[in-house]
Each structure stands twice: as C-alpha cells, then as structure tokens.
Specification:
Layout: H1 2-20, E1 23-35, E2 46-53, E3 58-63, E4 67-70, E5 78-89, E6 92-103, E7 108-119, E8 127-137, E9 140-150
Antiparallel strand pairs: 1-2, 1-9, 2-3, 3-5, 4-5, 5-6, 6-7, 7-8, 8-9
Length: about 150
C-alpha cells in the first residue's frame, strides 16, 4: 500500500525533467550592419545581421527601432530604444521585442534585453528571453547573445 501512495510522487519526478528539458540555454555571436536595403516592407532603414549560436539559433536577423529617447542627463552620450527583432533560421522565425541602451554615436557600446513575442516553425509557442551585449565600431555592431528559449 505504501508503494501505491508513492506512485504519484514518482510519476511527478519522472515527468519534471522532461518539462525542464524544454528550456534551452542559448549563447550566440551576432554581427549587424545598418542598411537602407533589404529591410522589411515600409522601412527606410534597419539593421541586418547574422547570428551563429547553439540549439539551431543560426541564420539572419532584422531589427528596426520603433521608439527611442535620450538618456538621462547624467549620461548624455546614451540613448534608449525599443523595437521588433527577428531571428530567421532554417527552423523558423523567432520574433522578439528588444529594449536597450546604446551610445548615440557610431563608436561605443550596446546592451539590450529581448523577450520572445512570437515564433513560427520550431519556435511556434516558444517563450523566453535573450540578453545582447557588445560594441559598435566602423558601422558594424558585434555582440554576444545569452539567454533561454523554452519550447512548448
């Protein structure tokens, strides 16, 4: 009788790793350049890039800020921004909302938080977040991406 009482607990323990296993730690390298060509319809400019990461996060990217503000008076060389960010891979598209800060000139740093808002293919129904951090120089933005994607 004691063994039957433990059965639900054992089943819960056996299924828990499967649920936890649906989340994958992500790390990737991302390089972007500003462009006036190849942007999504209706956009005059955007940032196009290439991502090379683990768990299938390899492909191209697209970003265009839809809002921005000057930084605080104590950090006048920074601006904050937000916009949709797309990772386009062979397995599907991952659409994020990126919110970040960067220096307001062509040389400097950038750091951002990306939250999954939608996905297609492998990423349909996924949730999670990514942190992006790096520098910009000579018209190129080079960052490191780290976070977690949870699959349904």
């Amino acid at each position: 009788m004691k063994h039957l009482t433990l059965l639900p607990l054992l089943l819960a323990c056996v299924t828990a790793p499967a649920l936890a296993g649906s989340c994958k730690a992500i790390h990737a390298d991302l390089t972007e350049v500003s462009s006036a060509e190849g942007c999504n319809p209706g956009l005059a400019s955007c940032f196009l890039g290439e991502v090379d990461g683990n768990h299938g996060l390899r492909g191209t990217t697209h970003f265009a800020a839809d809002s921005g503000r000057a930084g605080p008076p104590t950090s006048p060389s920074f601006i904050s921004y937000s916009g949709p960010f797309e990772y386009r891979t062979q397995s599907g598209t991952l659409t994020m909302r990126e919110t970040g800060v960067t220096t307001n000139n062509s040389e400097g740093v950038v750091t951002a938080y990306q939250e999954i808002v939608q996905g297609t293919g492998l990423y349909a129904g996924a949730s999670g977040y990514l942190f992006v951090s790096g520098h910009k120089s000579g018209g190129m933005i080079t960052t490191f991406v780290k976070g977690e994607i949870c699959y349904p």
